[in-house]
Amino acid sequence: MTQKMKIPSPLVSLLPVAVLVVLLFFTIRLLGADALGGGSQICLLLTTALCAALGMSRYGVSWKDIEHAIINNIAGVSSALIILLIIGALSAAWMLGGVVPTLIYYGVQIIHPKFFLVSCCVICAVVSVMTGSSWTTIATIGIALMGIGKAQGFEEGWIAGAIISGAYFGDKVSPLSDTTILASSVTDTPLFTHIRYMMYTTVPSVVISLVIFTIAGFSHEASDSSQIAVFTTGLAERFHITFWVLLVPVVTGILIARKVSSIITLFISTALAVVCMLVFQTDVLREVAGDGVSGGEALYKGVLLALSGSTSLQASTPALTELIATRGMGGMMDTVWLILCAMCLGGAMTACGMLGSITRMFVRFTHKLASTVAATVASGLFLNLATADQYISIILTGNMFKDIYKKNGYESRLLSRTTEDAVTVTSPLIPWNTCGMTQATILNVPTLVYLPYSFFNLLSPLMSIFVACIGFKIVRSVKKD
């Protein structure tokens, strides 16, 4: 005989979220950005245990139901986990194959003092799109641009704002980004459908930001940019810079435009980058392989080590050494682990009826399109503030609103876009968020100093609500009952 499950009240349902916030607060305070290496995952598992204990002891939920919900949640993101692993290999191949170094080499040479801020934003955007990581972009080319900007006399808030705006634009729209993949997978939206739909809010936001940075650059008197020569010379010393390697992003772009499956696209792109490694960067591969092997064995070992694990090549400057370091597939494991643990929490909250109870609180604000999107944005911002982690916020926001959007007849791509507009780009603006702490530490600029100049990050959630208010390119997938 099946016992009818009691539905927990919203107050009880929010208890695990409150516990998670407290655990994350102390974890992040103790570990800082290193919390993603295991501390945050443990917090998620402890909260999952609390959910299961409450559900089984007070609301008649069986462990089998909880386990089944967790398995279903994990199965739903299984393709995303495969994509993340491929991305780890791809980012290493693009770097060591000379694709990213070539893009940076020619990109930084376009910098002119009057156009420094706008160029800074564009360069970081391009690198972030190519690597799929705002963190990597800021920690590498971002540091170099900070040095160049300071040498030209720009205020650090303006420089950091331009860097972060560009880096998070690229992170948001890149098919290689883990947050982009996560937002699309949690909401059951095809990856490239999600990316294309984001352009309606992302492009206006970044265009306005670029206009502001251009005006600010023209109103500034700057000095020389001699550091650029040091940076480009260092890249040329380490890699064979050639336009031939740019065929890799060109082919990748064609595959994306033709709507080829993301896994196939990423695999082909990785394979082409490996060919570039073998043709143009043999010295790099031999250095990665280390002593004890030579000839073809050294190249084969170098490729295996590059794709699977971390590499660190010495360059002329510390910033350049950091830029060309790679993490490979192994570097994605913290993210994979975090997603698995977050899926456990989401499954437990779903099985125990807690997620549904919380969702019902938002129903009163979701009768119209604009209010639905605004409620999603507010929820994403609240979770970013509360959980201090963008990954957890994306997962919880997507899970909470998935049924609401479906019931109201809105496409899943609207939810995935709104989630990214609200969560991904606002995470570096929160001082205690893992992103905010990391970027402030890397750039050595306090979060509240660069916040007013991170125009793209500030405009994105507002643009999401504005586009919903005018109903541009928003259609209903089904008729509302």
From TrEMBL:
<feature type="transmembrane region" description="Helical">
    <location>
        <begin position="336"/>
        <end position="357"/>
    </location>
</feature>
<feature type="transmembrane region" description="Helical">
    <location>
        <begin position="38"/>
        <end position="57"/>
    </location>
</feature>
<dbReference type="GO" id="GO:0005886">
    <property type="term" value="C:plasma membrane"/>
</dbReference>
<feature type="transmembrane region" description="Helical">
    <location>
        <begin position="263"/>
        <end position="280"/>
    </location>
</feature>
<feature type="transmembrane region" description="Helical">
    <location>
        <begin position="12"/>
        <end position="32"/>
    </location>
</feature>
<feature type="transmembrane region" description="Helical">
    <location>
        <begin position="239"/>
        <end position="256"/>
    </location>
</feature>
<keyword id="KW-0050">Antiport</keyword>
<keyword id="KW-1003">Cell membrane</keyword>
<feature type="transmembrane region" description="Helical">
    <location>
        <begin position="197"/>
        <end position="219"/>
    </location>
</feature>
<keyword id="KW-0472">Membrane</keyword>
<dbReference type="Pfam" id="PF03553">
    <property type="entry name" value="Na_H_antiporter"/>
</dbReference>
<dbReference type="InterPro" id="IPR052180">
    <property type="entry name" value="NhaC_Na-H+_Antiporter"/>
</dbReference>
<protein>
    <submittedName>
        <fullName>Sodium:proton antiporter</fullName>
    </submittedName>
</protein>
<keyword id="KW-0812">Transmembrane</keyword>
<feature type="domain" description="Na+/H+ antiporter NhaC-like C-terminal">
    <location>
        <begin position="166"/>
        <end position="471"/>
    </location>
</feature>
<dbReference type="InterPro" id="IPR018461">
    <property type="entry name" value="Na/H_Antiport_NhaC-like_C"/>
</dbReference>
<feature type="transmembrane region" description="Helical">
    <location>
        <begin position="115"/>
        <end position="148"/>
    </location>
</feature>
<comment type="similarity">
    <text>Belongs to the NhaC Na(+)/H(+) (TC 2.A.35) antiporter family.</text>
</comment>
<feature type="transmembrane region" description="Helical">
    <location>
        <begin position="369"/>
        <end position="388"/>
    </location>
</feature>
<feature type="transmembrane region" description="Helical">
    <location>
        <begin position="69"/>
        <end position="95"/>
    </location>
</feature>
<dbReference type="GO" id="GO:0015297">
    <property type="term" value="F:antiporter activity"/>
</dbReference>
<keyword id="KW-0813">Transport</keyword>
<keyword id="KW-1133">Transmembrane helix</keyword>
<feature type="transmembrane region" description="Helical">
    <location>
        <begin position="453"/>
        <end position="475"/>
    </location>
</feature>
